Amino acid sequence: MDCDVRESCFHAQEVIAMELSHTTMTDPADETGQPAFDHPCPIRDVLDRIGDQWSLLILEALAPRTLRFNELSRAIGDISRQMLSRTLKRLEADGFVQRTLYPEVPPRVEYTLTALGHSFLVPMQQLVHWADAHHEDICRSRRAARALDARDH
Questions:
Q1: Which of 9, 25, 81, 153 suits a disulfide with 41, CB 3.0-4.6 Å?
Q2: Is the pLDDT higher at 115 or at 128?
């Protein structure tokens, strides 16, 4: 699989390079002339976002229902308010999460998954189940690798 991912990224970069040699790729809706893609490799671009320490936990917490900031913080547990806020902003910018601010006193803010966020739940849950099923094997391999490293040094 690792090979397929590299080939896919290489292919994406190659296609984009060919496109750039013929035309300037800009988002037609973007009048600033910013590139159409933030990252030339779609796999790496998406994995950078969802592969961080907190995004999957936030998406999992929002899967069953809409939550307010403090509810989300309690559901995750050991995340700082600053990190939760930063990660929510990134997930919102990528279209996974919708933030709704209600004009009340005090203001009420709720977070919910978008259609894109919901569409990611199935592959995300498959990844979570795979990690659960294979975590012990991975830990065993890590211990064996550390033992070999210790012997070599």
A1: 9
A2: 115
Phi, psi of 31, deg, nearest 5: -80, -10
Enumerate residues 6+ apart whose C-beta is below 8 A from 94: 49
| Cis before 123? omega within 30 | no
Dihedral over Cα of 54, 59, 61, 67: its sign: positive
Question: CA-to-CA distance for 15 and 9, rounded, in angstroms?
Answer: 10
pTM (two decimals) = 0.68
Q: Which two tokens stand for residue 130?
A: 């795979």
State the number of CA atoms in the 13 A half-sphere of 73 facing the CB.
Answer: 11
CA–CA gap between residue 115 and residue 87 (Å, rounded) = 18
* Secondary structure, 3-state, 11-79: HHHHHHHHHHHHCCCECCCCCCCCECCCCCCHHHHHHHHHCCCCHHHHHHHHCCCCEEHHHHHHHHCCC
What CA–CA distance (Å, rounded) separates 150 from 146? Answer: 6
CA gap 107, 103 in Å, rounded: 6
Q: What percent of the chain is predicted at pLDDT more than 70? A: 75
